């Protein structure tokens, strides 16, 4: 999930299963899966390395590495270019990458702070902020609506200003 939980120890943080229960979906592809470690992601296929240079297909789940100041930008660019899935990120609304993703999302679900799992199966401490789930496509938007209805978070629909660089 994040560097603030155990600085320098791992970028591998696994999404808790209750998020997938709330979404009520099975994914065709997890594009940022860890190698050799089973996670809670209900997906048919997993990319464990070099995901940004591979072709993505179908309905994707993306919980990319959060490391580095602008580390999410290439992941989000590829995610929105693919246009079919759900991406999990920190809810850093003031960050330029978040603001760009906001303009491209069909819906965004803001969750309270979530404790993510470590590779050893233990539950991490509470992070400093909540998370955001970005929807790309109708199926993803429906899943976020279902998750919001079940109480997972606050659903928002990004509005555009009509500027050519939006959407």
Please provide a written account of the structure.
The chain has 167 residues and is an alpha/beta fold. The chain has one domain. It has four helices and seven strands. A seven-stranded mixed sheet has the order 2-1-3-4-6-5-7, with helices on both faces. Helix 1 packs across helix 4. The longest helix is centred in the last third of the chain and has 12 residues. It starts with 16 loop residues before the first helix and ends in an 11-residue tail after the last strand. The N terminus is likely disordered.
Task: Give me a quick take on this structure.
By secondary structure, the chain is of the alpha/beta class. It has helices at residues 17-23, 73-82, 96-104, 138-149; strands at 27-30, 43-46, 60-62, 85-90, 107-111, 131-136, 154-156.
Mean pLDDT: 85
Total domain units: 1
Order of helices and strands: HEEEHEHEEHE
Approximate helicity band: 10-25%
Instruction: Report the sheet-strand fraction.
Output: 15-25%
| Uncertain parts | 1-9
Number of DSSP helices? Answer: 4
Global morphology: globular
Q: What is the straight-line distance between the termini?
A: 28 Å
Rg computed from alpha carbons, rounded to a whole number of angstroms = 15 Å
Global structural class: alpha/beta
Query: Largest beta sheet, briefly?
Result: 7 strands, mixed
Q: Quick one: how many beta strands?
A: 7
In order across it, which strands form the biggest sheet? 2-1-3-4-6-5-7
